[in-house]
Amino acid sequence: xxxxxxxxxxxxxxxxxxxxxxxxxxxxxxxxxxxxxxxxxxxxxxxxxxxxxxxxxxxxxxxxxxxxxxxxxxxxxxxxxxxxxxxxxxxxxxxxxxxxxxxxxxxxxxxxxxxxxxxxxxxxxxxxxxxxxxxxxxxxxxxxxxxxxxxxxxxxxxxxxxxxxxxxxxxxxxxxxxxxxxxxxxxxxxxxxxxxxxxxxxxxxxxxxxxxxxxxxxxxxxxxxxxxxxxxxxxxxxxxxxxxxxxxxxxxxxxxxxxxxxxxxxxxxxxxxxxxxxxxxxxxxxxxxxxxxxxxxxxxxxxxxxxxxxxxxxxxxxxxxxxxxxxxxxxxxxxxxxxxxxxxxxxxxxxxxxxxxxxxxxxxxxxxxxxxxxxxxxxxxxxxxxxxxxxxxxxxxxxxxxxxxxxxxxxxxxxxxxxxxxxxxxxxxxxxxxxxxxxxxxxxxxxxxxxxxxxxxxxxxxxxxxxxxxxxxxxxxxxxxxxxxxxxxxxxxxxxxxxxxxxxxxxxxxxxxxxxxxxxxxxxxxxxxxxxxxxxxxxxxxxxxxxxxxxxxxxxxxxxxxxxxxxxxxxxxxxxxxxxxxxxxxxxxxxxxxxxxxxxxxxxxxxxxxxxxxxxxxxxxxxxxxxxxxxxxxxxxxxxxxxxxxxxxxxxxxxxxxxxxxxxxxxxxxxxxxxxxxxxxxxxxxxxxxxxxxxxxxxxxxxxxxxxxxxxxxxxxxxxxxxxxxxxxxxxxxxxxxxxxxxxxxxxxxxxxxxxxxxxxxxxxxxxxxxxxxxxxxxxxxxxxxxxxxxxxxxxxxxxxxxxxxxxxxxxxxxxxxxxxxxxxxxxxxxxxxxxxxxxxxxxxxxxxxxxxxxxxxxxxxxxxxxxxxxxxxxxxxxxxxxxxxxxxxxxxxxxxxxxxxxxxxxxxxxxxxxxxxxxxxxxxxxxxxxxxxxxxxxxxxxxxxxxxxxxxxxxxxxxxxxxxxxxxxxxxxxxxxxxxxxxxxxxxxxxxxxxxxxxxxxxxxxxxxxxxxxxxxxxxxxxxxxxxxxxxxxxxxxxxxxxxxxxxxxxxxxxxxxxxx
Length: 1062
Known about the structure:
Blueprint: H1 2-7, H2 24-33, H3 45-54, H4 66-72, H5 75-83, E1 86-90, H6 91-107, H7 110-116, H8 121-130, E2 135-137, E3 142-144, E4 150-152, H9 175-181, E5 185-191, E6 212-218, H10 231-234, E7 235-236, H11 257-266, H12 268-283, H13 290-296, E8 312-314, E9 320-322, H14 323-348, E10 352-356, H15 370-387, E11 394-399, H16 406-409, E12 413-414, E13 424-429, E14 437-442, E15 459-465, H17 485-492, H18 495-498, E16 513-515, H19 519-534, E17 546-547, H20 559-572, H21 589-597, H22 621-636, H23 641-657, H24 661-667, H25 670-680, H26 686-701, E18 714-718, H27 725-739, H28 743-746, E19 749-753, H29 755-764, H30 770-785, H31 790-800, H32 806-816, E20 832-839, E21 847-852, E22 865-867, H33 872-879, E23 889-891, E24 894-898, H34 900-903, H35 907-918, H36 920-924, E25 927-931, H37 941-947, H38 957-970, H39 973-983, E26 989-992, H40 1007-1023, H41 1025-1035, H42 1041-1056
Parallel strand pairs: 1-16, 6-15, 10-11, 10-15, 11-14, 18-19, 18-25, 19-20, 21-22, 25-26
Antiparallel strand pairs: 1-5, 2-3, 3-4, 5-6, 7-9, 8-9, 12-13, 13-14, 16-17, 20-21, 20-24, 23-24
Helix pairs in contact: 2-6, 6-7, 6-12, 11-12, 12-21, 14-15, 19-20, 19-42, 21-22, 22-23, 22-25, 23-26, 25-26, 27-30, 27-40, 27-41, 29-33
């Protein structure tokens, strides 16, 4: 078991790989599935018998046919077997099929374009089920068609202008379609006439067989034909993986996608490249040429028993085998098997015994290490699903006739004390599982042999190896009954009839089930939301992770405004159709491909250089868009945490260097990409926490906020007021005491000006808490205000308009604040923050300026100028540059002074920003706390006290004018309060601003007067205790269950691309 845990650290084990993208064309194809009529299945046994007799290829045996079975088996069971059969695909494959249709419409041959022009996904599945050959086998593609025609070879020309009858696209599957067909499975109840042994030949021996069971036809990876099927995805060879065959990242330096598309239609080489990129996206790997891969990866020869440990391993002829792609291909097969077994057992009210055979581990296999990866993939999926409570009705999984290496065999413990043990077993424990866990074993039991002993009464779910281009049984139809597991299954079960799309109408695209990993909960959420809307309490408890064929939670409408109605419409159609519950990947199909193809652009500047520190290079808008698409795709395809960290930082640097790229990045799915990455980061390690922080920073630059702490955002505004900031600290301390929470955990958004900016920066940058801010004020009082002589201060005031030592002030800020940019504050899971300064550049009007830790959403703009790019200490320095106290602050060509000149109470500004971030409706449900720094008794008291004996007649008028501006605005803090108190909903807005019993300057250093400030504040708190308690109650409100459900659905919809992320 220790080895199994170690397995999950292998470079190729990527259990949370991203889903295929969902763009407009994808959503339209999915939406078409919702318009399908309800499936009406017939259980008429005679009708099936009639169709079976009409099947043009004769059956080699009669014992498994309905006509014979009805004599000795229950007619009701036979009817059940008919209607219980359906095609089965993974939700990833559903999305892949939409991409396939999009690709063929754009880049297919003229024959393919005509065929696929109006084709829907169910019609494609129908075609896959019905247009396949009767038999198809061997490295020479020996075949027999439904017309009876036989031959070998020629399948690679189907769909091209070189195709020749009988192998034409109208009647046969192309090799491209076969790749999809290998991931289309069929499942259903069946009668078993014997134990299914390889050479059973259809002889009736029912005493040792389960009377009935579930049988699933699966298709494994095929390596028999070079450059075809999974060979082209998993193997990297010198002959195959070349630019001429479409591999590699760069095709053309052209920067216009429309030109690219036109070129690709005419250029077969470019069409090949698009084909490779589609599959690279599906498997979430780079498309390497052999030369590229071997130039930077040192692939060493390993023994057969160790080849499962590395991602890339050498096989015969120096071919390179990609274990990651192989693992992901097997995940499709394994997940469908496990979840189908769970669903069937749940419906039957029994526990499932899943018998797994080796798909693709026979003549299709190219390396013996594949058996090790095969078993490890199943084990990893079982363990993962068990932790998520997704296999509550699966008690046993058995690997039959699969022979791993000694290293993998050692994972299984002996269950026998005999010298030659016959059974190897692993038990995966789970306290929440009804059986205490799942038993996984290696036992060469025959597929449909009777379950005895501890397994008696369980539902047997067996699998058999099918083919992507043959009818169930394959060689069976040639009369070759003993050659493989495919004809063996056809000789012992009903698959030759009931899994045959020409005989059983239930095997159709309209009746396809989509197996999903998160549909179970997502479906329940959608149902619950509808019930909340309608006021009903009934809950549909139908199995949900495998659902009917046509309900797709995808739409091309703007679901941000119609989200609830979309969910309701989806639920209304859920009885009829194809359901996908999936977290589709991050970016649109179009932009993903564009990014990969256009990454080479001579106009690109250094993405690591920040434009606000140096001049930006000249760059075209198209080039910026191209680069943006590429850096997004680079995040999507990152293979390690370190790689992900670097690529996300590059993305952040890119947005900072080119702010105009932000809207394009949002439009092209950057938020979805980042959310998918965020969902995968679950380990609590240093590198994971670091990457989480960087992803949070990138999301903040996209305007993403996530759900608020309460019903709406909790907003904190802190006034300016110099040393009187200690009043605000005392008020916030009292709120912390009442709520039992730290300020940073209490609020979603903080805005501060001047002294309020200092407090906000300490909290919002994650450098400390209220105690940290309080210590800064004591340091400020002693080192800055207390150490300045009258002569020195007056001298500086005359020459620099600064009474205090600005350099010392800047040093103090740098020593006490985190050395990071504003956006980097998001790495520490702190509230969104804005610090207000005032731009006083000559020749321009005074205007507030916001230093933000975030950007707003898609095409959302604030009325206030600002930046997220500055350092935190720069922002505080600018916001607290009080005239006559400190020098003005120059940054990026602008001259900043204290924000209190215009907005000494920044609550109104904060509300405007919060509405842009969280939405106006959300803000109405939130709580606003506005904290003042004391109401001065005399309008000009600060001015009079600050003078400290200065000769007023000798003072220049310039600094008086500047100072009067801040004094005038400071006295108007209560005016803002009166307006907001009238506009905001009752009980949601709280203003705390104690009256002061004596005058106190902004640079006061007298300990007695400072203590009086605190005394006045505590008296104010006691008098307004009830008001504080009301505020604490509002701040600690939690989001309702319905809000959390909506949050979940909206979050998944963003990941899937159903709604526009912003």
